[in-house]
Amino acid sequence: MEGLMKGKRGLVMGVANDHSIAWGIAKKLAEQGAELAFSYQGEAFGRRVKPLADQVGAELVVSCDVEDSASVAATFKTLEDAWGGLDFIVHAIGFSDKNELKGLYADTSRENFIRTMVISCYSFTEVARHAAALMKDGGSMVTLTYAGSVRVMPNYNVMGVAKAGLEASVRYLANDYGPRGIRVNGISAGPVRTLAGAGISDARHMFGYQQRNSPLRRNITLDEVGNSALYLLSDLSSGVTGEIHYVDSGYHIVSMPTLEALKE
Ligand code: NAD
């Protein structure tokens, strides 16, 4: 299938480098004819994002720190001035203090709880509100989540709580914007080796464990997340909203490790 995204314009938020999930998604969207804009957090990331944006012919590359509402508003003003409207957004943003992505969840500080929630959960709601204002003919929004939202994963801690809030936000936003033809979905990705992923203590153990215990017996690739996002952002999924779509080699359906895996 070709040209699935032809004539569609969208913002990709959360590319830090070419290992980022957002980059895996951006490449698939560009291959299918989407016109892309990128936002990045701070100039150090900007220097990495700009050459990637060039690779997919994106001209709009803007700085956006989601901790700052004015920065989010300015990003969407730039998009409005340049494009007038918007068809989709990809929100692939998460952060928590890595000192609290280990040990007990119970030890999470108030300060880091709030910061994690603002960046990893609330930012999607704020971004969605700005994006929806520009989606005059309907649209599609996708955010990234992880199964630590519904089950306890060692060290994922406050990120799991933030992802639970994010997934609930997907459902509320889907209901808010559904009457306007705007769809809102989440992708729950299996572990991927990225900058954010490396912040979780014992990430290597999580990676190996899910590899051994998922039905497909392997971890997922950036291309696989990209393809699923392409489905959710294109008209192929026109009847789908409020969904959390797992791209995790089926890991979330398994309740017990195999005997072989336990022996490893
Ligand atoms: P990544 O480090 O490549 O991307 C995280 C992005 O969040 C970075 O681009 C970073 O700049 C951005 N970010 C953090 N704080 C920000 C702020 N204040 N303002 C603007 N941007 C900010 O890592 P990734 O793994 O590609 O993460 C993307 C999303 O995927 C995250 O929501 C993450 O939780 C989720 N996810 C990751 C995995 C995994 O195993 N890597 C699995 C499931 C879900």
Task: Provide an overview of this structure.
- The protein is an alpha/beta fold and 264 residues long.
- The protein has nine helices and seven strands.
- It has helices spanning 21-31, 42-55, 69-83, 110-134, 157-177, 195-198, 203-213, 222-233, 259-263; strands at residues 9-13, 35-40, 60-63, 88-91, 139-145, 182-189, 244-247.
- It has a seven-stranded parallel β-sheet with strand order 3-2-1-4-5-6-7, with helices on both faces.
- α3 runs parallel beside α4.
- The longest helix is centred in the middle third of the chain and has 25 residues, at 110-134.
- The N and C termini lie far apart (42 Å).
- The structure holds nicotinamide-adenine-dinucleotide (NAD).
- Nicotinamide-adenine-dinucleotide is lined by residues 14-16, 20-22, 41, 45, 64-67, 92-95, 119, 144-146, 189, 191-192, 194-197.
